[in-house]
Write the structure tokens for this entry.
Amino acid sequence: MDRKIKKKKWTAKKIAIYAGAALLVIFIGYNFFLSGGGTRLNVERNKINISTVHEGDFQEFIPVDGNVLPIKTIRLDAIEGGVVSRKHYDGGILVEKGDTILELANNDLLQSFVREETQAFILVNNLENTKLGLQRNQFDLRRNLLELDYQIDAAKDAFERGKKLYDDSIISEQEFLNLKREYNRLKDNRKIQIETNKFDSLNAKLQIRQTEATLERTRENLEMIKRNLDNLYIKAPIEGRLSTVDVEVGESIAPGQNIGQIDDLNGFKVRATIDEHYISRIYAGLNGTFTFAGNDFGLAITKVYPEVNNGLFEVDMAFDTIPNGIRRGQTLQIRLQLSENITAVQIPRGSFYQTTGGNWIFVVNEDETEAVRRDIRLGRQNQRYYEVVEGLQPGEKVVVSSYRGYEDKDILVIK
């Protein structure tokens, strides 16, 4: 009878497999214990920058570039069109207020002036003649009324005498009626003379008013044309430096065409360009500083231009004190202040930010033998420091140099 052979539970092969697995687990655990729970990397001390977290005054500002400009620039535009007959100055020189820069010729405008001037002379003559005619009419009326009054007085005497003679039957009725009609005719004639003269006077006065109104308009037109003729002489409105006058003798100039500009040299301003990211935080009165010839100077925003071009917008800034030696066209590196001084935990700016985005950092232990990765949160920044919102305490040390090659490391072993 065959006997059933029991299969061995622990074979040499199985024991070898389990032993190998146990050794692997022990090795992994040992490495994990040595690494403190993360990947490690050896770094040389002289290849990293270590800075200390500190608490102190913090002010958020951003660097912006500004160009020095004159405090005021006056455009020279041609009010009247014409042909350049004379060019007194080229650009780049100092001019006084009232200096003539260009002379233009405009024959049409000159002819209009002559026509209006002639019309004004004609209207003046007509007005004087009308006034003289009115005065003559007044004299004629007085003379006629004097003659009529004399005739009426004589006719009245004849009529009264005739009435007595008629009553005494000395003259006929026909003779009496003739005397009466002559007397009445002269009285009616006097009334007509007065009414006619009144009408003529009113008509003459109306003509005078109309002529005076027309003359006034003509004189206004004449003054306007005179001003237009004066505008053919393009003059400096202020004292300053004349820019390039980009026209030549014989060239036609259209009304409104710009021929140059004058810079007011009594002061300067700064035109700065700022990233549109900050547009909601920029306003008139915001302060900034810059360094010139070894000294710091202050600025303040006076005007914000809302137009955004290529991701940038512009502001005008006024100097608190204008530095000696500043010139138009110079570029200034301005630190534009976005907040007041506050007390904040902060760390120096460094290349680590390009890798971490301010979300984590390597924190160095006291004896500077290791740096352990730690999550943090940064807030505002300026040219020198980042504000630490959470994750770090004053006195701790951090690595602020580049993290290139450290992205997936948890611990830096400093040699």
Notes: The chain has four domains: 37-58+342-414, 61-71+264-337, 74-104+238-263, 108-232.
